[in-house]
Amino acid sequence: MTKRAESKYKINRRLGVNLWGRAKSPIAKREYGPGQHGQRRKNKPTDFGIQLMAKQKLKGYYGNIGEKQFRKYYDEAVRRKGDTSENLIELLERRLDAVVYRMKFAVTPFASRQFVNHGHVTVNGKRVNIPSYLVKDGDIVEVKEKSKGLTAVLDAAQSGERDVPEYIQVDHRQMKGSFVRAPKLSDVPYPVQMEPNLVVEFYSR
């Protein structure tokens, strides 16, 4: 296992959950946290600790988004009309790397971000290599012609680990799909319980 993969799965052990629902996660074998003090008895978390954990889960799920960028999503969610926690989930799901992951063009959010970074994806026929690019309703996301035969893409598309959600349409023969509509929290197929309301509480303290 590479250092990158080890670091990625360390998030699972630190949070005590199988964040992406993958069989490879070490949480299935060791439920305690990483490091030499990982097996120490945990104290009952405070309200702040619970809110912080909710934020770390959500940030970690989308490929460990940086704090500065994540805070921008929160600020934008507050600015928009409607429920702030639902707005936050919508913004995260509109990220191009998240859409590529949902379309099963990549096996993990980390792989999806790298896939976009390396210029393998187009949006409405134009190459976009910015993982945080926000996809709009009806946008067509496609794997570039030269990249459609990559083993990693084919393996991800054929994986039975997860299904494509209803707010995404995809044709795996053409490696092409569209973002149909903004999802609600209940629409998003998280393997673990996400609590964006606690994230809102964390930032609004």
From TrEMBL:
Keywords: Ribonucleoprotein, Ribosomal protein, RNA-binding, rRNA-binding. InterPro entries: Ribosomal_uS4 (IPR022801), Ribosomal_uS4_bac-type (IPR005709), Ribosomal_uS4_CS (IPR018079), Ribosomal_uS4_N (IPR001912), S4_RNA-bd (IPR002942), S4_RNA-bd_sf (IPR036986). One of its GO terms (molecular function) is structural constituent of ribosome. It comes from the Bacteria. Residues 94-158 form the RNA-binding S4 domain. The keyword Ribonucleoprotein applies. Residues 3-93 form the Small ribosomal subunit protein uS4 N-terminal domain. GO terms for cellular component: small ribosomal subunit. The keyword Hydrolase does not apply. GO terms for biological process: ribosomal small subunit biogenesis; translation. Part of the 30S ribosomal subunit. Contacts protein S5. The interaction surface between S4 and S5 is involved in control of translational fidelity. PANTHER family: 30S 40S RIBOSOMAL PROTEIN, SMALL RIBOSOMAL SUBUNIT PROTEIN US4M. Belongs to the universal ribosomal protein uS4 family. One of the primary rRNA binding proteins, it binds directly to 16S rRNA where it nucleates assembly of the body of the 30S subunit. This is Small ribosomal subunit protein uS4. It comes from Muricoccus roseus. The gene is rpsD.
